[in-house]
## 1
Amino acid sequence: MTNNIKEQIKTDLQQAKETGQLRAERIREIVKSAVSQVVSEFKEGSGELRSIVKDAVSTVIENIQTKGSDFKEEVTASIEGALEAVNSKRHENIIKTQAEVKQLEAKLDEEENNIQQEVDGILAEIQKTGTEESADTKTAIDSAVNTIQNSEEVALLKKRYAQLRAQLAIVRANLAARYGGRSEEVKDYLDEAKNWFNQARPQAEAVVTQVQQKHSQVEEKLGEAGTVLAKKEHQLRQVLRELLLSAADWLKEKEPVDKVNK
């Protein structure tokens, strides 16, 4: 069986050479296709699978003559192609689990909204009661309620949470793109990142220029990643990597000095 895979890879590589298509992306597809045909016949994590991956990569090395950076890129592509094939089943399980996680998160969001509505109702009732008190008492009650409703600490926590969730979704998109996730999976993660990014977006009048620039940079990279994915262009991994770096820098943003010192 291993010999069959080797022969298929060798034949496909030769055809790619003859048609001038022997590039890293094509090598990745060739190895992934060959390994995918037998991966389901072996237990995940088995020694047989590891042997097949090793033989597939060795076959590529033996049948390409390029050197330097191109050689490294092509070897890397062969390894990635083999890993994508081996991990395809695991990715199906990940997608299923992710769907279950989203359902649980939606339930949590609903419960949190219910709590917030309950709190708002209680505070409104307290304010209503305050109208029957003296002016000083009413002022004190209104001030206390306003402090609770507009806590800057809570707002900052929500913002940081949204930022972290956006970055986590970007990390997952990178992992899915690098280790065999389908384009639909990458798209779901990018959509999730956009959603959390929008929730973390600060009000224009409350941010400094540096923060605005970082938000614009992440927004631009999110849009670029979506465009590249839609066109199925091979530079997706590079764009996602740039997006990840932008998101990491985005988390370092500083709050406006006048807000922090209040």
Note: Residues 257-262 have pLDDT under 50 and may be disordered.
## 2
Amino acid sequence: MSTATPSRPMVGIFWMLVTGLCFVGVNALVKTVGSRLPATEAAFIRYCLGAIWLLPLLGAMRKDRVTPKLFFQFGARGLCHAIGVGLWFFAMTRIPIAEVTAINYLSPVYVTLGAALFLGEKLAKRRIAAVVVALIGGMIILRPGLREVDIGHWAMMLAAFVFGGSYLLAKVLVDKTNPALVNGMLAVWVSIALAPMAMSVWITPTWTELALLAGVGLLATTGHFTMTLAFAAAPVAVTQPVTYLQLVWATMLGVLVFGEPMDVWVVVGGAVVLASVTFISLREAQLKRRAITPVSGATKI
């Protein structure tokens, strides 16, 4: 008799919809915070306040012993993620929410390439083709030569790349210790890595800014939790396409709330990238290999 948990696709889709709303809420709050606070300071405050929501995990975090090698890997991931978070906050102050969301879809593609280079994952012809298609989607979003590419675009491109590296390190770490410790150490090390950068440009935040950044931490933590519920209820192949709605919601939010122009090519390019990521995820599921490619959003802050 099979003991596998039965798939519940509608439940999985529901939780992934909630996840998408949480991450779009994160974008909205960060956009509301604005650019008065330096990006590194805003990111530092977000992670310090966000650590409060991880307090229930303390018991689980203390179960595993941290070896010197694990300690180094936690630190490396924290530094990597801190750079990505700082770049992400900066990009949010420079370019529309829809473009930040669409460019972030490239992160799983970088993870696929990194897994081939560093984790020994094989890149079959179909997966190589999917990666190329995703990069074409990225060019559709940026359209270099056809419009001015802002420094915010380059910051977000680099952020997606760095988030991919952070995710790869997370995949290595969860094979060695429990997920609670991995998540908890991320909050600790990102805060440590951002602290000197934040202190060097410190501007005293207002109570409103503190409240907004605390909300960012709560929504981000909730989003990762509901994403886990979605994975438990249904295969990634079912839930992955739902993440495209994040781009739709982000576009609507930018246009209706923040008065940002709607760029159809960003939506098209984002769809191309996500279709590629979905194909890669489907191939991993069909081959029953250990999943490497994260869903869009798994690499977020």
Note: Residues 68-94 form the longest helix (27 residues).
## 3
Amino acid sequence: METLHRPVLAWYATSARDLPWRAPEATPWAVMVSEFMLQQTPVKRVLPVYEEWLRRWPTPAALAADAPGEAVRAWGRLGYPRRALRLHAAATAIRDEHGGEVPSVHADLLALPGVGEYTAAAVASFAFRQRHAVLDTNVRRVFARAVDGQEYPANATTAAERRTANALLPDEPETAATWAVAVMELGALVCTARSPECGRCPIRSDCAWRQAGSPPHQGPARRGQTYAGTDRQVRGKLLAVLREAHDSVPQAELDKVWEDAVQRARALDGLVADGLVEPVAPGVYRLPR
């Protein structure tokens, strides 16, 4: 473990990005907001939305006092807007059940609406400097290569990966918290999915994948997510109209965004089912209140 800990931590100390949710003054709420926004979304897209979000809602109580539709509106084009509803629901629970303070206990975090194992571990580690294994896509890829000698991890997190992550976790909580974010940063900046910069990697001499000759992935083909022409694109166009309207929108306005009436209706029905859109009268819709 020492052969991995020391070089990765030293690399992070000099190479980490200066991000607002990592600043010493960042509150646990700021860390939680960043973790919700960063799921499946690049940092450069998150930063402006994150900064505006915290200006408007600097505390969970501030967000909870506003309508969930306002969270969806402020989410803008980050994608996967159900995250906005889940963050609003988590903020409401924090206000009602935890006195407005993000809980520091992992089990309490995990019990919040919209918070899964990854987010609970990340907030406990990054906001409260606790010892938890934090397994996102970047971390899993680093461990797959450095420890298992595989180019990519399995499509879903396995029990073996969790055992590896826990075995590699430093004993001291503060060091463990830094290790968790350092490995994540290594995966984001150096040990990337498509073009890893092995020459810059601080653990290249101990990487099992490199030692094995960097064998190509042997598992099922890894397919990128498509967007153009999908229901997800239609949903985004419909939500864009509703976000900009600041009031109820008639069906005729929504009909303009997509020619395929069947697909458009299916996307709208999905938005209603997900709680992202409310029908207020026959053929009239708005963001949830």
Note: Strands lie at 249-250, 278-281, 284-286.
